[in-house]
């Protein structure tokens, strides 16, 4: 994308490498501080009305707030979630480079903050922003396998379809704040991938057309009787022959190979 190339040349030196790792470390630190009752979550959550009261840090700290696990299993899932986010974020950074990965997350983050002012009293979560990383990774690596519950291998493209379906359901049934956060989080996805998706769709249509033409070509009969129109498709048991005396190398079925009138070329039919 030319625009991204230009932005990377201008601002690439300011990109933060290992951004996914820093987000995970920050979330782990905040979670442990909350569990030890050293850090009240009320000071970290974000809603536009609080930002307008001068508590500007909330626009940053909400990215590090995660729910406190209520059981050992919940804590295991939290660790697994951190591992997945770090793994997918690092993979995207390796594929795109630090600048583009930073920009991808920043667009989702900035859109979330901007749209949140339409519902100023609603709390904003980082779940959808972080989830956009999963959608991007799944789009680029659809056949990557995850081992669910450490037993069941599932290709990530099917989990991505479930994530998209969940977004659609929540967008329809959720409140305005949910809809705005979903729209913001997938905004960066479509900005990065919509052009590629359109190209893939067009290429798929062209490939389908070529396959259809090839199938139609294969369905055409190889031999067609010049007299009666029988073909090797309609009468596969017949032995079709070609007449060497006919102009144009005409084909005939066994019934007409000896009883047909020879085809004469137009020039041959004229008197000399």
Give a verbal description of the structure.
It is a single chain. The protein has 272 residues and is mainly α. Strand 1 and strand 2 form a beta hairpin. The mean pLDDT is 85. The strands form two sheets. Strands 1-2 form a two-stranded antiparallel sheet. Helix 7 packs antiparallel against helix 8. The chain starts with a helix and ends in a 20-residue tail after the last strand. It is built from nine helices and four strands. The chain folds into two domains: 205 residues, Rhomboid-like fold (Up-down Bundle), CATH 1.20.1540; 51 residues, no CATH class.
Write the layout of secondary structure elements.
Blueprint: H1 2-11, H2 19-35, H3 48-52, H4 58-61, H5 72-96, H6 98-116, H7 127-140, E1 145-148, E2 152-155, H8 156-173, H9 176-219, E3 241-242, E4 251-252
Antiparallel strand pairs: 1-2, 3-4
